[in-house]
Design a protein that fits this description.
alpha/beta, Aldehyde Oxidoreductase, domain 3, Rossmann fold, Oxidized Rhodanese, domain 1, eight-stranded mixed β-sheet, five-stranded antiparallel β-sheet, 15 helices, about 30% helix, about 25% strand
Length: about 475
Amino acid sequence: MKFSLSDAPIAAEPITHDEAGGFVVFEGKVRNHAEGRSVVGLEYEAYPEMALSKGEALVEEAIERFGLSEARVIHRVGQLAIGDTAVVVQTASAHRREAFEACEWIMDQLKWRVPIWKRETYASGVAEWVVPGEAASSRVDDEMFARQMQLPEVGPEGQAALAGARVLLVGVGGLAAGSLPSLVGSGIGTLGLVDADLVELSNLHRQTLFAASDIGRMKVERAAVFARRLRPQLSVQLFPVRLAEGNAEQLISGYDWIVDGTDSLSTKLLLDRVCQRLGRPLVTASVHQFEGQLMTVRPGGPCLADLFPEPPPDHCVGTCAQSGVLGVVPSLMGVLQANEVIKGILGLPVLDDKLLLFDFRTLEATTIRRKSSSELSSGGSVWDVDATSINLASFELVDIREPNETPELTRPHHRVPIAECYELEWQRPTLFVCASGRRSYRLVADLRARGVRNVFSLQGGVECLERD
């Protein structure tokens, strides 16, 4: 057996395996304190048939997940004294990293998935059963959330609503670095994490859920460890997959609020469609260099598709890798996303008919009223245009590049820095152009969100214009 129970002191035989180069042994011992109280003894009790079945399945899953050569777990039951070994986990793999990762993962999962009950006896003479996976005592929660519950908008009822809420984070990167700690710290009861990526070195300047030692490991697993260290009572569900048409509905249907932490427009629009169909509120944010956008989409209200009535081209907005991003921007926008979720759960107003634009260079915030498709005035919905398919003479041409960008346009045009374009009125049909078409497309998206209709973006930017 790979998982066993013992009512006597554990004497584990070392694992030997000729194909393994990394061997890890973890021993968990009874300590003399827990949550600030002095502990004098411990007792473990298990329902043997169920514990052995669940434990065996857990170890088998670890072997498959981490490619181990071998793994074993022995857990004590009965009375234990201070210093006694309560559990031994042994892992063996070809390389040490997998052995370490698997050992940590088994210990983390063991507390939540295997039905073994612990009773702590304190120096005061009081003894309490601690059930893995259930919420801690009301004393602990009351102490953790005491200052939050002092708010009249929260109180015990609001805190109970937060504890009962299920929130799904799609994308565990820079935005999640702000939203995840804030949601966990607020008392959210269940958190789902969706992301198929591994941690990379280039992530670390903005994805502060992770450390350098996490490089090459699954983002969802390392984020779950971060969350449980902050609040061990939290229920975390991991989905190491990429959101797609085939799994979106199944993933989203089990949650009350959805938080978009992706940098893909196609994924955002997919979330928007599925959340509308299932009746789930969606909080979505985007970042670009020093800027951020935020909005909440309520079922039946103005949605992301109203801003992008036609699916935008892949080139319209650069990713963080393409355009760069200041490290604090995603985290700060993620905190604002968490704020929207918490307010929504508490019944407070959210940005369900507005778009927040924030410039972190100037600390200027602009709130734009959003309208649903039924409210928008009629007009063309295709506003990213090809120079070969239009009569340029019918447009006022505006170059939004910075003054030092070249080459200069040879056609009649105005040169207006992008920041000033938001302050002007555009009465005539206007065609904006930049170096690649990305900035102009984003500007037009913002202006159309404000209700400006006769504005367009040139696909491909300056090069395509001058080639025509």
